[in-house]
Design goal:
The complex is a heterodimer of chains A (215) and B (244). With 215 residues, chain A is mostly helical. Chain A has helices at 6-13, 29-34, 39-63, 72-94, 96-102, 113-123, 128-158, 191-207. The longest helix of chain B has 31 residues, at 213-243. The chains are: A mainly alpha (215), B mainly alpha (244).
């Protein structure tokens, strides 16, 4: 591994599958679902969360010994809110259209439970380097689910990926559409995201039965 | 008056916090195992939304938006502080939640016993911050409407968590495929309920969609039938708990 010891690598790799923030820890669902109708928005959201979580984890971890535990929630909220404002201003400056699509959901990264959850569970008890790796790992796990949902919803719902018409043109009837394929409008509406997450959980737990819950 | 009624029904049914914009999903999934606790959390959310949305409306109107500082004097007319809204909104919410907790504990210990454990959870509930951010982005005009928006979106959230808690209590007795148990089936049920709520979308469009209106109406009738049934079921199971 070179740079990373085995334990450090575990910090990054565990959240990708067996300790995934969305499907196992049930954190950060709120923003995961609303913006996944397009792959592009999902990727931007994943990158924003990665920035906020990794930086926030480092900041909180550096301050962990001087934060009085009674007001730690407010301190955490201020740190997250500052980082989110940076993300929001950068998006507005360099990707205005996209920031319109994401609308209030950039702001809602503040209350994304992944962020507070990781601060509470990890950054308050560990050093900055480990917290950084934990932040990267958890946001990667979050991002992977977002990208999977975004991929299927955009592919099946609009027949495009990142805006490219990968299945042919629905109006001129080229590609798959020439043999009678239709877009599934159901995938575009918000509730479809919930059902896709349900199916991802189903697949994951069928492959790894130790994750199955008691009712 | 009419716009109040419209906003009220719109935020409960059409722009429902859970089913249309997925806000507050974390606590929605975590605290919906029992109807009694779901009712407690739902009531606390209505209460906090009703307090924080009008407060943040005042902040937005007189401090944050473009030209809001003009009441200080004409030379302040050019200031636009809206980039600060995230941090101010979340600070207001966190402070209000803390304050409400203290006040409720002092004046109504019985209410505190019911709501108390949920109040800290609420500061980081996305539905609360979402309420304020949507209030800002939808440009709600008056303080009264902001108050209305807070209460009605809280009621929408309450309705959603009550319904899912009732369903989860019943589903314990059914044979769900093992990998779907718990979280998986809850997601899928929420998705199905969301599709049901989508049909309320036709409720307020009125004459705009003249040809489709008939279809929408029939769909709505069917849906209403279903929802009523669901509500009755909730009522029954809630009564059961009370009786126990």
């Amino acid at each position: 591994m070179g740079l990373l010891t085995k334990k450090d690598a575990g910090l990054i790799l565990d959240p990708l599958a067996d300790n995934n923030p969305i499907t196992i820890q049930v954190l950060g669902i709120c923003s995961a679902l609303a913006i996944t109708a397009e792959l592009k928005a999902s990727i931007v959201m994943a990158v924003s969360v990665m920035f906020v979580l990794a930086m926030g984890n480092v900041v909180i971890s550096l301050m962990r010994n001087i934060i009085p535990s009674k007001i730690r929630i407010i301190v955490q909220l201020v740190v997250v809110a500052t980082l989110v404002i940076i993300v929001d201003q950068v998006l507005k400056a360099f990707a205005y259209e996209l920031s319109k699509t994401l609308s209030v959901f950039v702001g809602l990264i503040i209350t994304n439970c992944i962020i507070m959850g990781r601060f509470e569970a990890f950054a308050l008890a560990n050093g900055p380097y480990k917290s950084f790796l934990d932040g990267i790992g958890n946001s990667l796990g979050y991002g992977i689910i977002l990208v999977i949902i975004g991929f299927f919803r955009e592919l099946l719902g609009s027949g495009t990926l990142l805006g490219f018409k990968v299945l042919g043109d629905p109006i001129e009837k080229t590609g798959l559409y020439s043999i009678g394929y239709e877009n599934n409008g159901f995938m575009i509406i918000p509730p479809a995201a919930l059902i896709v997450v349900g199916i991802i959980i189903w697949v994951q737990r069928s492959r790894n039965p130790s994750l199955i819950e008691e009712n | 008056m009419l716009e109040h009624i419209e906003l009220f029904f719109r935020s409960i049914f059409i722009d429902n916090m859970v089913f249309a914009v997925f806000l507050g999903m974390c606590s929605y999934l975590a605290v919906s195992k029992k109807v009694a606790t779901a009712v407690g959390l739902g009531a606390a959310v209505i209460f906090v939304l009703a307090v924080t949305v009008p407060l943040n409306w005042l902040l937005d109107q007189y401090l944050l938006r473009d030209g809001a500082l003009v009441w200080l004097g004409p030379e302040y007319a050019d200031y636009n502080l809206s980039f600060l809204s995230f941090i101010l909104f979340i600070a207001t919410i966190a402070t209000m939640v803390q304050l409400v907790e203290i006040v409720v504990e002092k004046f109504s210990p019985s209410l505190y016993n019911q709501l108390g454990i949920f109040l800290p959870l609420i500061a980081v509930n996305c539905a609360i911050l979402g309420g304020s951010l949507f209030m800002q982005s939808r440009d709600i005009q008056t303080l009264g409407l902001a108050f209305n928006y807070g209460i009605s979106s809280g009621i929408g959230w309450f309705l959603a968590i009550l319904a899912i808690a009732a369903i989860r209590e019943k589903i314990r007795y059914s044979n769900v495929p093992a990998p779907l148990r718990g979280l998986g089936i809850t997601f899928i049920i929420t998705g199905l309920m969301g599709i049901g709520f989508q049909s309320f979308g036709g409720m307020l469009t009125g004459g705009d969609e003249a040809p489709a209106e008939e279809a929408v109406k029939t769909a709505q009738k069917i849906e209403e039938g279903k929802i009523n049934k669901e509500m009755d079921e909730n009522e029954v199971s809630y009564n059961d708990i009370l009786n126990k």
